[in-house]
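Researcher: Sequence recovery benchmark, item below. Answer with residues only.
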């Protein structure tokens, strides 16, 4: 961080001290009648959270310039970019400050799938098919091994979903914007999308398990070639162990706005009860990319819901930054 701050200080000190005093009279650098070195002010600003930084842009022109042009870049680099490729650092440097703010607030690595183990019954799921004896939540798996210990996906839950002798199918559609992954993040960064789930059968009955994952556009239409579909047949006597299925979407282009997660199961012997496949620990998360896509900015620049009043950063509506040199002291050009 020190090197970034030093570069900023050199740029801002391109003119003499007298010129600085005449142009803005050290505005933003004087605290309790004491002149604080610019490097210390930069260091202090890097400790503010995103909301405080957005509000602090109104303090003075110097702070506005520092926050928009430097501080957000420093914070993103420190949080995510220790091993970032040089080409990606260049892309990052060109991103507008409000996109960097969105990146800092986005919940990378958090599971976006809700009620993944059935701990809340069928809440958050849309049931498509509930054949046979219908979906069942088992507090602990019946006829198969217990859920694996110390696995992140289960979050200490012990329950699972169980299917029956006719197909049971349900889904969740994740709206990325609602979780903080704005259109700008999805189009400019294209973070990797990780999808996974654990599945098992029973020790005594064969079954079938399916997992479908689709990337959808703004109209909730499946984007061509951006689907993952797997079907697994578990023979009788071989199903009690838990296994994990996973897939990663990357380099998927612009326009991804939703993720559809669908799973289903059925037994293959038509036994009354819940002898079909079981599933638990579903997970969908986005990983901050270490290499950004090389692409031209899309025609639909920024978020579809961002109008001329500026992007919604979780607080008051903000004016979209337009780099007007008249807004910046001449010695900062």
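Model:
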């Amino acid at each position: 961080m020190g090197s970034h701050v030093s570069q900023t200080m050199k740029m801002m000190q391109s003119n003499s001290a007298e010129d600085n005093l005449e142009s803005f009279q050290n505005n933003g650098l004087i605290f309790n009648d004491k002149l604080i070195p610019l490097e210390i002010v930069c260091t202090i600003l890097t400790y503010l959270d995103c909301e405080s930084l957005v509000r602090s842009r109104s303090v003075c022109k110097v702070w506005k310039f520092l926050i928009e042009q430097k501080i957000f870049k420093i914070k993103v680099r420190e949080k995510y970019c220790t091993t970032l490729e040089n080409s990606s650092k260049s892309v990052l440097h060109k991103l507008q400050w409000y996109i960097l703010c969105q990146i800092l607030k986005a919940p990378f690595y958090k599971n976006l799938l809700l009620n993944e183990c059935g701990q809340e019954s069928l809440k958050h799921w849309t049931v498509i098919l509930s054949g046979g004896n219908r979906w069942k939540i088992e507090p602990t798996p019946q006829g198969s091994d217990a859920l694996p210990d110390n696995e992140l996906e289960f979050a200490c839950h012990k329950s699972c979903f169980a299917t029956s002798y006719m197909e049971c199918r349900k889904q969740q559609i994740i709206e990325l914007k609602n979780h903080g992954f704005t259109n700008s993040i999805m189009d400019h960064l294209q973070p990797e999308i990780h999808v996974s789930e654990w599945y098992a059968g029973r020790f005594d009955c064969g079954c079938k398990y399916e997992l479908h994952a689709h990337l959808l556009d703004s109209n909730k239409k499946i984007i061509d070639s951006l689907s993952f579909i797997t079907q697994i047949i578990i023979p009788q006597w071989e199903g009690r162990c838990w296994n994990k299925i996973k897939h990663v979407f990357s380099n998927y282009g612009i326009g991804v706005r939703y993720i559809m997660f669908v799973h289903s199961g059925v037994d293959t012997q038509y036994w009354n009860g819940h002898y079909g496949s079981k599933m638990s620990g579903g997970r969908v998360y986005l990983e901050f990319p270490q290499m950004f896509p090389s692409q031209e900015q899309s025609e639909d620049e920024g978020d579809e819901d961002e109008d001329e009043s500026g992007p919604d950063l979780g607080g008051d509506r903000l004016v979209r930054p337009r780099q007007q040199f008249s807004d910046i002291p001449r010695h900062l050009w």
